[in-house]
Amino acid sequence: MASTKKPARSFNGMTYREVQCSNSSQRSQLPKPQQQQIKQSGFRNVGWENVINLYNHLETLQAKLNDELPSLETLFLEADRIGNKYQTETERQAFTQKMAAVSTEMSELIDQQFPDTEAEIISFKGKQKTNRRSKKKR
Question: What mean pLDDT is predicted for residues 14-22?
Answer without folding.
Answer: 91
